[in-house]
Design brief:
The protein is of the alpha+beta class. The chain has one domain: Aminopeptidase (3-Layer(aba) Sandwich), CATH 3.40.630. Helix content is 33%, strand content 41%. It has five helices and seven strands; from the N terminus they run βαααβββαβαββ. β6 and β7 form a beta hairpin. The longest helix is centred in the first third of the chain and has 19 residues. It is globular and about 40 Å long. The termini are far apart. The structure holds coenzyme A. The site of coenzyme A has 18 residues, from β4, α4, β5 and α5.
Length: 141
């Protein structure tokens, strides 16, 4: 059974750290000291589990009326099954419930089409973050 929940870092960290390490540090070669930051503590974390295993995650950070989405990751063997889309929609819904007027994210260039399907629009130039090309994308709520 696949379950999706939103929770605090205190509850999420032991569940999401192994997946983020695998996807970002191992697969995408993000330096480990860039993967963990002070925003995890204040973020809301989406966790998708299947058979007691974490297979997807993402986080939401509220800055006044702007909600920043990030750290979207789905286990490689579970991609293209709609899990990322469910996480993104749950984070957007959470942002609305917390009073956000806009969602913002830094999309890896390969994932622009994934976010565009949920109506995010690219803004500004491509820039480097952790050695990976990104573009800012926004969704007015
Ligand atoms: C990006 C990521 C989270 C997407 O999760 P996913 O579960 O594979 O995505 P979904 O299956 O929910 O895809 C939803 C839709 O987006 C499309 N899509 C997914 N990834 C895509 C990509 N990289 N490029 C273009 N379209 C993509 C799917 O085809 C699907 O389209 P459909 O609704 O028309 O069928 C996942 O590929 C991942 O973890 N990648 C590695 C980490 C990463 O790059 N994170 C993003 C950082 S910005």
């Amino acid at each position: 059974m696949i379950e999706l929940s939103i929770t605090s870092w205190a509850e999420a960290q032991s569940l999401v750290k192994p997946l983020r390490y695998q996807v970002f540090v191992i697969e995408q070669k993000v330096p480990e000291d860039m993967e963990w930051d002070e925003f995890d503590e204040i973020a809301w974390h989406a966790i998708v589990t299947a058979d007691n295993q974490t297979i997807g995650t993402g986080r939401l950070i509220m800055h006044d009326r702007i909600a920043k989405i990030g750290r979207m990751a789905v286990q490689s063997s579970r991609r293209n099954q709609g899990i990322g889309k469910s996480i993104l929609n749950e984070l957007i819904q959470t942002a609305k419930e917390k009073g956000a007027q806009e969602c913002l994210l830094h999309a890896q260039v390969h994932a622009i089409a994934f976010y565009a399907k949920e109506d995010f629009e690219p803004h500004g130039p491509i820039f480097d973050e952790a050695g990976i090309p990104h573009v800012e994308m926004r969704l007015i709520l």
